[in-house]
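job 3f2a | input accepted
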Amino acid sequence: MSILHRHLLTLVFASLSTAGCIAMSTDNPAGPTSSVPTAQIFAPGVVSGPANDGSPAFSPDGNSIFFTRSTADWGAIVESHHVDGHWTQPTLAAFSGEWPDSSPAMSPDGSYLVFESKRPATPPTSRPKEGEAIPGIVSNLWRVDRVGAGWSNPTRLPDTVNLAGQSIWKPSVAADGTIYFVAIDKKGGKRLFSSQYKDGAYQQAQPLPFSDGASLDVDPEIAPDGSFLVFSSAGRLPGDSKDHLFIVLRKAEGWGAVVPIRYAGDDKNGYSADDEPHLGPDHRTLYFSSDRVVPAHFPRSLEEAQADVKRLDSTGWFSGYANVWFIPISDWLNGDDAGKSSATK
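job 3f2a | predicted structure (345 res):
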C-alpha cells in the first residue's frame, strides 16, 4: 500500500477515535508519566510539518539535526539548528538534493554522516534527458566527512557494506565504527546486517542473528556503545502488518530477546506505522517517524472545527503525514523484565 493510501485510511479511522490525547512539545522531551510512555510530537510546524518527515539524526551536542523531507517519489536531507530555544526552519543539506537521498545517520563523535542515496556510483558525464534511464541507479550507503563548518563530497561505501544485488537502506553507526543497516533482496525480503570497521576498513557485512529475513525487519538504530538496538518490523505481531518498534539488548552471550515497544494510544493493534527510529543525544529518548494523528473528538464546536481545518494547511502531524514523534525508553533498558512489562501493560 502506498503511503498516500495509508495516510487516507489513517485519517478516516483516527477521526472517529476516542483514544487518549497525545501530548505535544516543541523542544525538550518529557519523561514518562506512567508505565507506558506518551508519544509527543517533535517541533510541530517546523520539523514536523506539511511534508513527510523522517526522524532526525542529532549532532553530539543536540543542537543540530539532519532528517529526510520527502514527497511520494523522492526525498532530500535537510538540516535544522536549535537557536534561542527553538528549531530553525529546515534548509537543504549541502551534500543533498542532486539525487534522491534519505535516512541520515550521524557518527557518535559527529565527525561524519552516513546516508542512503539512489545516485549512480559513477556520475553521468552529461545531464540525462528527461525520462532517460540512468545506468547504475541503486539504493546504496554514502558517507560525508565533516570539514570545518561544512562537509566533504559524498563517497560511496565499499561493496562489503553495499551488498551486490540488494538495496541498502537506513544506516546507524556505533562508536567503534560498526555500521548497521537493512538490506532488501530482489524478492522483497528484508534483513538487518552489520559491518565492523577494523584496521581502517569495513569488514564483510553479516546478518544479525535475530533477523532471519522472514520478519520484515528494517531501520536499525544502534546505541553508541552497542548495548542495545532498536528497529522496526512489519512481521513480528500476529495479524498486524504495519511497521512497529522493537528493542533488543546485548547480553554477554549475544543478543537477548526481541521486545516490542509500545506507547499510550498504540496498543498491539495500533493503527499507525512507526519506523526510522533515532536516539536523541541522551541515548534514552527515541525519536521515530509515524503517520499517527491527534484524534478528533465529536461533537465539536464551530470554533474547534475551524481551528482543526486551519491546522490542516500547515501541520502534517495533524493530518496523517509521516512526521516525528518521541518517547522515553529508559524502562526498556532496565532489563528484560522491565521492557516486557512496559510493552504489554
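job 3f2a | The first strand starts at residue 23 and ends at 25.
job 3f2a | closed
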